[in-house]
């Protein structure tokens, strides 16, 4: 996510990193289950 996107959403950087990590984990789970 770009800094402009972070500023527009109003999230703190820690919240962005946490949600990004959760998103990656969920995508990996779905990908592993579908393969």
Automatic annotation (TrEMBL):
For this entry, the protein name equals Uncharacterized protein
Q: Which organism is it from?
A: Medicago truncatula (Barrel medic)
């Amino acid at each position: 996510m770009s800094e402009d996107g972070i500023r527009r959403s109003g999230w703190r950087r820690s919240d962005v990193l946490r949600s990004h990590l959760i998103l990656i984990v969920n995508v990996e789970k779905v990908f592993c289950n579908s393969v």
